[in-house]
Each structure stands twice: as C-alpha cells, then as structure tokens.
C-alpha cells in the first residue's frame, strides 16, 4: 500500500549563495498544475520565498515504510518554517476566539447528529467454510492464515 504525505515548507530568511535544490519530478508536477494561483506562486517562488519538500511514503510487503523526499527551490542557507508551525498559531487564535464568544446555552457538540444509539436488530446469517475462507489467502497452511512476522526482537 502506498500513501503520500505532502509537507509544504515556506522559506523565510536571508539571501542565498548556493543554488536551490529542485527535483525534476516535483518541478513537472507543480508546473503542470491547472490552477492559476499555483502557477503564479511557482513563477514568483523567490518573492514568496517558497520552498517545498514533498515526502513520499512507500511500504514494502512487510508494511515497513521507506521515505523518498522530493525538493522544489529548497536552499539550506535559507531558514524555513514547516507548514505545521504556521498552523499552530492559527489553531490557538481560533481557540482564543471561542473563549471570547458567549456560548451560554450552547451544548458542546460531541456527535455530528442528534441521533442516539441507532442500532439494528441482530440477524443470523450463514457462514463460509474454512476452505472458502482460505481460498484467496496469499499464504495459508490449510487450516490457518500465514502472515508475516511484524514484531522484531
């Protein structure tokens, strides 16, 4: 299974002497965007001090992760703030705003609906045989599924 994690890093800092690092894969991805706003930012990357590190996370057949970073305009001589550090102050400001509001009479929302304990009646259904259950298993011994060892000692 393959999942992608994207981390956008905005660069704020001083002028750079070295050449910023850009991988062709990320450059093609960004340049091919159909969004004009993205194109405008990419074309003015220096004025926005934009730096992007895109991290691809892949997992092997034992579900062990491996990471591959791709870079756009990343210059190690320029300080940058990870996007998560930009989001934290905004979250704190939102909480501060909630504290300023009069919430008298408003119940805290725990669930997205007002419905409580919506259950269905149990229904007895048939089952499948062991042979049918193991039929599509990638590995089995005729009685049990065989799975890769995930705990290392």
Overview of this protein structure:
It is a single chain. Helix content is 28%, strand content 20%. The longest helix has 18 residues. The N terminus is likely disordered.
Topology:
Blueprint: E1 2-11, H1 24-31, H2 36-43, H3 45-48, E2 50-59, E3 65-72, E4 80-82, H4 83-100, H5 130-134
Antiparallel strand pairs: 1-2, 1-4, 2-3
Count of extended strands = 4
Radius of gyration: 25 Å
Low-confidence stretches: 1-16
Number of DSSP helical runs: 5
User: Spatial order of the strands in the main sheet?
Assistant: 3-2-1-4
Could you state the order of secondary-structure elements as H and E? EHHHEEEHH
How far the N terminus sits from the C terminus, by CA atoms, comes to: 25 Å
Proportion of residues in extended strands: 15-25%
Shape: flat
Helix content: 25-40%
Largest sheet: 4 strands, antiparallel
Mean pLDDT: 80
Keywords:
4-stranded antiparallel sheet; alpha+beta; flat; 4 strands; disordered N terminus; 153 residues
Explain briefly what this protein structure is.
The protein is of the alpha+beta class and 153 residues long.
């Amino acid at each position: 299974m393959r999942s992608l994690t994207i981390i956008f890093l905005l660069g704020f800092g001083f002028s750079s002497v070295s050449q910023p690092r850009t991988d062709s894969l990320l450059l093609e991805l960004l340049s091919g965007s159909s969004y004009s706003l993205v194109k405008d930012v990419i074309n003015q990357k220096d004025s926005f001090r934009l730096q992007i590190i895109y991290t691809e996370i892949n997992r092997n057949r034992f579900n062990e992760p491996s990471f591959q970073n791709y870079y756009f305009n990343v210059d190690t001589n320029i300080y940058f703030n990870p996007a998560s550090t930009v989001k934290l102050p905004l979250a704190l400001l939102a909480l501060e705003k909630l504290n300023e509001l009069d919430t008298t009479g408003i119940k805290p929302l725990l669930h997205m609906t007002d419905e409580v304990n919506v259950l269905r009646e149990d229904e007895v259904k048939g089952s499948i045989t062991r042979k049918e259950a193991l039929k599509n298993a990638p590995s089995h011994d005729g009685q049990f599924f065989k799975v890769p060892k995930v705990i290392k000692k």
